[in-house]
Design a protein that fits this description.
heterodimer, A: alpha+beta, SH3 type barrels, five-stranded antiparallel beta sheet, B: alpha/beta, Rossmann fold
Chain lengths: 81, 380
């Protein structure tokens, strides 16, 4: 029920209703991006952002640096074995 | 970076498993007295079975599948109310696919649809608005359910319906809240737990702050986790690190998505449209105070509970069904006498067999037999 799938914003399709096209594993889907827009992230700057999509809404951005740090930690753990 | 495949790397999983094995032994856990960790979220339950994690984890860890599956905790009386709405003339009921097979006292939404009710599955609550615009002579009611992950999307849908002046759309609100459910579990003397794997996508909305009482008042570590196999294994490793170091904290393994403060836009939408109910009935757990959302009076024109007269009855669970004990983590699915016989995903008696996030459906679908179950059915 709380399923979320990462996808990448490819196009802003409707500024008024805050809708964007998102590529989710190769499938193009229009989603609402209201939850990821604020003064630091105006709608025009969202293209190419990775977001987590849940029931047709982008609920949060994915943080590439945090993801990379997690993977690096796990890589070091594997090396230490 | 695609944020999926990278978190399914078998080499890293093997390293984590070896670490987990070492740490549980170091912590003095044995197969007869394992470390008991509850994964609260049904999404985690689904991942654990899908990737076979329960099979590859050492016997020194026991995973307990918690009540974080909105379909599984949906009481039969609320389902009956939804079917009553769908049976009104000129009503189109829309809902997520997960809810279609949940048994009410007489039938499910799918069975109600089969005998003529206009019930439609939607991918997003916003799709219901389009259906309302396409059918101006019908009342479109969205059967809204889910935790705080889903509540912002339905709140934003109501705000959009309000902005567009839609007169023929409303919502039957069944949103539930994670924190009061955890509180109820922690206060249950039957439940023996060492730690929690915290829900990832609920935390994406509410942040990590609301869980601190679990670490501080109940002395249980909680690690908010992602849903890929490496996420869940790393979360278990982090829990073990805490226990060995004598710490009891809320930690965030899923920091690529979850921020301590949550998502302010989503929280604002939720708080604008919804208020907390005095109590809400949870299947298997009974009434839990302050554990559900209802639509604020300001948006009463979009509240199906105001627009329609409903049966509003509490209906006891099926006598043979032991979903309640399974949801509380005090019983395993295969210990229920109707599991896999009278109760199957095709013909569920209990809600834990309906959703792929329910513990019973997960055991049934992925054919998992724990070592205890293997012994029980005579498999060596």
């Amino acid at each position: 029920m709380c399923l979320g799938i990462p996808g990448q914003i490819t196009e802003i399709t409707d500024k008024e209703h805050q809708l964007a096209m998102v590529n989710i594993s190769g499938v193009q889907r229009q989603v609402n991006i209201a939850c990821i827009i604020d003064e630091n992230h105006p709608i025009d700057t969202c293209i190419n952002d990775w977001v987590l999509v849940h029931v047709g809404f982008a609920m949060n951005r994915l943080d590439e640096q945090e993801a990379a740090e997690t993977l690096q930690l796990l890589h070091e753990l594997a090396l230490a074995e | 970076m695609k944020y999926v495949d990278e978190f399914r790397d078998p080499q890293k999983a093997k390293a984590l498993l070896r670490e987990i094995q070492t740490l549980t032994t170091q912590f003095g856990k044995t197969a007869s007295q394992p470390l008991k960790v509850m994964e609260v979220c049904g999404g985690h339950t689904h991942s654990i079975f899908k990737y076979g994690l329960e099979e590859i984890l050492p016997d020194t860890i026991e995973l307990i599948h918690g009540p974080g599956c909105p379909v599984c905790v949906m009481p039969r009386g609320r389902l009956d109310d939804a079917i009553a709405i769908a049976d009104y003339p000129n009503v189109i009921l829309t809902t997520f696919g997960d809810a279609m097979r949940v048994p009410g006292s007489q039938k499910s939404l799918l069975q109600a649809k089969a005998v003529g009710a206009d019930i439609r599955m939607v991918y997003s609550p916003l799709d219901s608005l389009q259906i309302a615009k396409d059918n101006p002579d019908k009342e479109v009611v969205f059967f809204g359910l889910g935790f705080e992950t889903t509540a912002p999307s339905t709140a934003l849908t109501i705000l959009q319906a309000d902005a567009e002046g839609l007169q023929n759309f409303s919502m039957f609100c069944n949103h539930v809240l994670v924190i009061p459910a955890l509180q109820a579990l922690l206060d249950n003397p039957d439940l023996q737990l060492d730690a929690f794997i915290g829900p990832g996508h609920v935390s994406m909305v509410i942040g990590t702050e609301p869980y601190h009482f679990i670490a501080q008042q109940y002395q249980k570590p909680l690690v908010v986790s992602g849903f890929e196999p490496l996420d869940i294994l790393q979360s278990l490793w982090m829990i073990l690190q805490q226990l060995i170091q004598g710490r009891c904290e809320v930690e965030n393994q899923y920091d690529r998505i979850v921020k301590p403060e949550g998502n302010s836009v989503a929280l604002n939408a939720m708080n604008t449209v919804f208020e907390v109910r005095q109590k809400f009935e949870w299947r298997g757990l009974g009434d839990i105070p302050n554990s559900g959302f209802k639509i604020r009076p300001k948006y009463a024109q979009f509240d199906a509970e105001v627009k329609f007269t409903l049966p509003n009855r509490q209906v006891a669970d099926h006598k043979a069904c032991q979903c309640g004990e399974i949801l509380k983590g005090v019983m395993k699915p295969w210990q229920c006498k109707v599991f896999g016989t009278a109760c199957t995903p095709e013909n569920p008696i209990g809600t834990c067999m309906v959703s792929s996030e329910g513990a019973c459906a997960a055991y049934y679908k992925y054919g998992r037999l724990s070592k205890v179950a293997k012994t029980a059915v005579g498999i060596n």
